[in-house]
Amino acid sequence: MKKLIHDFFGHFFSNPLLPLLVIIGSVSVMLFTGDDRSERMDSDVPDYVRTSVPLVVTTVTDPTVPASSSADSTSFSSSAASTVTTAAPMTVASFTSETTTTASTTVPVTDIETTSAENTEAVTTETDKPDDTPRERPQVSNYTVYVGADSPNSGFYQERLVIFGDSIASGFNLYGYIPREHNVAAESMALWNLSRYSFDLGGGVMNPVDAAVYSDSPLIYISIGMNDIPGTNPDSYANSVYTIAQQLVDNIPDVTVVIGSITPVSANNYYTTNDRIDSFNNAARDTVDAYGNEQILFFDVNSVLKDPNTGALAGSISAGDGLHISGAAYGYWLNALFSFLDANDVTTRIEAHDSKYE
């Protein structure tokens, strides 16, 4: 037996091509464990996606923005986003805490810095509540307005929507669904590493919570948690994300904060399981229900993007890595969200918030 092993390794390493082929094969297996990257949402919405009308897009200039203001802002041309189904693929993000992308120089803030459930602390912010004096509506750069949605209030919601979250959340801005000034989301951002990030939405560099408060938006959507799954538990996650929502309510009069569920992953992805994601989402839903604050809602986008036949992210709306979603999927996400907002009658509260701009 020893002679056979000796002869095998002697023959194996005497031929330089054999070790090289083994290495190439191993790398190929690791790279292609996710869904086929060619599976994009470039066709009609599958029957099981819980939305009925894919959104048609048209790029317009916000009439409230002076022409000169767009020079320093992110602009989305009609050629880059003429339809939902032709959006460019989203850049795949790495779910590691070591590599972070900030919108500007990070400034020290108190955050939820923890890698365990026992050490979770609430985010704090010293931002004063906005006063009630009349003011001008904040200017924003160009973005893509979506028509043909199920909700008759889709444009009303989209104009005010601010997104807070991780790389999946940042896709709303990347694909042009919201302007840069409404984006408080970045690659690898998580509840546990929130202090590493800062944003400048026009009022200077601020930590994520303060930046969201600065936006003074009546509609803020929180989509965060995928990067927290390895280092915490469902109850800790739910309490932490609710704490952020409560801070936004405390600082923005008449705001509606929607805590979105963590999106599903492909069945054969390398990162986590859908059962574990479901446990985090159930905990967040239970926490929102337990507090019963009418200004804090839970929206189950996971069910919108999940194939009920497999319980996993549909391959046709995967960005290819089994974790992120295609550009078109954000249109279906928004369509379902807008109908959800209609069902919860948030327009009255939004209009009350906006009255100070009149």
Give the tags:
358 residues; alpha/beta; Rossmann fold; 5-stranded parallel sheet; 10 helices; 11 strands; 33% helix; 11% strand
List the helices and strands and how they pair.
Elements: H1 2-14, H2 17-31, E1 56-60, E2 143-147, H3 154-160, E3 161-165, H4 167-174, E4 183-185, E5 199-200, E6 205-206, H5 208-215, E7 219-223, H6 234-251, E8 256-260, H7 274-291, E9 296-299, H8 301-305, E10 306-307, E11 312-313, H9 327-343, H10 347-354
Parallel strand pairs: 3-4, 3-7, 7-8, 8-9
Antiparallel strand pairs: 1-2, 5-6, 10-11
Helix pairs in contact: 6-7
Explain what the structure shows.
There is one protein chain. The chain has one domain (32-357): Rossmann fold. The radius of gyration is 22 Å and the shape is elongated. Helix content is 33%, strand content 11%. It has 358 residues and is an alpha/beta fold. It has a 5-stranded parallel β-sheet, with helices on both faces. It has a two-stranded antiparallel ribbon with strand order 1-2. A two-stranded antiparallel sheet has the order 5-6. The protein has 10 helices and 11 strands.
Query: What does the main sheet amount to?
Result: 5 strands, parallel
* Helical percentage: 25-40%
Number of strands: 11
Question: What CATH architecture do you see?
Answer: 3-Layer(aba) Sandwich
Q: What's the shape?
A: elongated
Uncertain residue segments: 29-130
CATH topology annotation: Rossmann fold
Q: Please, how many helices?
A: 10
| Average of the residue pLDDT scores | 74
